């Protein structure tokens, strides 16, 4: 199916509108399709279903629903104000994305089981994933508008929507770490999931730099330092989930492992080539949805024996060192730089 | 409790940081508090609980949690790049809001029942309201950043975050229309709930105008036309939910009434002063959570007999006329203006 033929904007009757409006409408439809196809795969599937471009199994359909009424309103408003509707395409795309975000979330809240004559996305994919898919569309809306910012604010305007987009993709990758599959989980998948944490720490640092009018070298160093901090911290949190003090973490013990979630220590143990790793894989494959306390405790011991804990702690420290090196190699004011270093160490190592 | 004393930034030890950083940190904490307090009441309550400023019943607490680590990172990054951390306050506020959005949503998806040592917001307030509260924080983040846009893009940059903010408040007001209370539901509450629809239609029109470089008169006319269209359409949809053809609406018949949702026809009937209104009030008060089909059909007849349908249809048409009047009174290009009028009529009246 070509992008034009199945999408709603192609239904604009040419006799109703001049060529510029038709072209702008087609660009909106094409861009929307591109935004959805570019999402993290699981989110692309849910949003593709929601827009009516795919069935519940991900197969393309011909009945792309949605009349893009709001996009049409945006394009016509631009024309009515005397401009070529093409100038309003980013706005029209963003408005449709926000609209579909709200449909995905509101159907959950309203317990509406039908949308455009089909089961609503939450009925097919579950409430959690439909919520996240809505979040992804909202992030995409702001990603589309941010580059319109002019001058010195442009850099600051793009940081947060980009981070939000990556956080949401990270959360989706993170959810996929749960479940029975132990054979296809690799460290690079885990690092993508880390974006749920690291993308925002990167953005926190980068937006401060951008608003300060930092030069490129400073901005890059602060951005990367924030990213490395995020990965280091996420790994440390995942280690703590298994071996930490619940009084410090404020979370129930072993909550990840209880869900068969393959965080870095588990992945490193599974990939260790040691007998403990093979026994762990076997145990996780055989596990039911509600493993017993002794089972989960036994898994934790297997992960540690196969080197999963030590390896994860090593990698966390290595990212922390990278973060500090980034800061120290850049031209930054000394006092706040060293305060950042102390902050990083306090976060990851829980130094007081 | 003063804003400073109970909030996390006040815990920055003065000997650790110079006065500018402390002041900036306090501004972040104050602004966050102000953002949350300014939300629609039900959302303010949930977010206040989530941040640790209120207990589950809405009473102030002293244990404001959250270390504002990300805000600190943002402020220090600005300082490290050579600026006064004050320049980074809007960025720091936005980053903390995005962070807390993600906590609210991720706890639902991860089924994490504890957050900062207390029951997570979704455990206390339900998944739907916690999702919406997260959405509200995300909207607030973009509302905080949008005014930083410079020059001609500023107007376009603020439209969508503002609309998102109002849509979410509208959805919260809309959810409050369900349930057994029939004595405190007024038309102005319904109109606030209409913002779930009308805020985005207003924005769709306004953002097209803004991107087209419209003058103030054009922008105002297009914005108001979009708003009036939204109210008109929402009322028409609520009328259709009761008396419409499910083949056209694609939604199950009477889905609002089945949930005792007091949309405009119901409110007008209840407030009609007619005997049918009093009987309707009695019936709704006595209704269980799952009313029978004959009950719901009987309510629909009572609403119609008390003038609820006719009154709602009148108000929908009146808003539609206002929308058209707005367009016709402004200096707009004639062809797209008339096409907007046709689009409005097609949406509300389902004219082909």
TrEMBL record, chains A, B:
The keyword Transferase applies. This is Polyprenyl synthetase family protein. Keywords: Magnesium, Metal-binding, Transferase. Belongs to the FPP/GGPP synthase family. Pfam families: polyprenyl_synt (PF00348). It comes from Micromonospora echinofusca. Gene3D superfamilies: Farnesyl Diphosphate Synthase. InterPro entries: Isoprenoid_synthase_dom_sf, Polyprenyl_synt, Polyprenyl_synt_CS. The keyword Zinc-finger does not apply.
């Amino acid at each position: 199916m070509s992008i034009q033929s199945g999408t709603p904007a192609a239904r604009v009757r040419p006799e109703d509108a001049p060529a510029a409006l038709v072209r702008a409408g087609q660009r909106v439809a094409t861009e929307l399709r591109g935004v959805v196809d570019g999402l993290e795969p699981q989110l692309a599937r849910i949003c593709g279903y929601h827009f009516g471009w795919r069935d519940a199994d991900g197969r393309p359909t011909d009945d792309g629903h949605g009349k893009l009424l709001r996009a049409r309103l945006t394009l016509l408003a631009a024309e009515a104000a005397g401009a070529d509707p093409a100038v309003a395409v980013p706005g029209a795309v963003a408005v449709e994305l926000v609209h579909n975000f709200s449909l995905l979330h509101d159907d959950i809240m309203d317990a509406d089981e039908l949308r455009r004559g089909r089961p609503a996305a939450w009925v097919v994919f579950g409430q959690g994933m439909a919520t996240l898919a809505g979040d992804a569309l909202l992030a995409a809306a702001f990603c589309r508008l941010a580059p319109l910012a002019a001058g010195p604010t442009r850099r600051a305007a793009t940081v947060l929507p980009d981070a939000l987009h990556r956080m949401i993709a990270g959360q989706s990758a993170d959810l996929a770490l749960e479940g029975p599959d132990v054979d296809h989980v690799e460290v690079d998948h885990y690092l993508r999931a880390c974006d749920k944490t690291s993308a925002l720490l990167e953005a926190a640092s980068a937006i401060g730099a951008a608003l300060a009018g930092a030069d490129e070298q400073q901005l890059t160093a602060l951005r990367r330092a924030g990213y490395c901090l995020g990965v280091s911290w996420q790994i440390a949190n995942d280690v703590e989930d298994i071996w930490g003090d619940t009084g410090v973490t404020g979370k129930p013990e072993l909550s990840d492992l209880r869900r068969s979630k393959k965080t870095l220590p588990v992945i490193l143990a599974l990939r260790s080539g040691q007998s403990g790793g093979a026994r762990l894989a076997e145990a996780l494959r055989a596990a039911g949805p509600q493993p017993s306390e002794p089972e989960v405790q036994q898994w934790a011991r297997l992960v540690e024996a196969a080197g999963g804990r030590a390896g994860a702690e090593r990698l966390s420290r290595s990212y922390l060192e990278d973060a500090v090196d980034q800061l120290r190699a850049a031209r930054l004011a000394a006092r706040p730089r060293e305060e950042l270093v102390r902050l990083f160490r306090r976060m990851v190592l829980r130094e007081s």
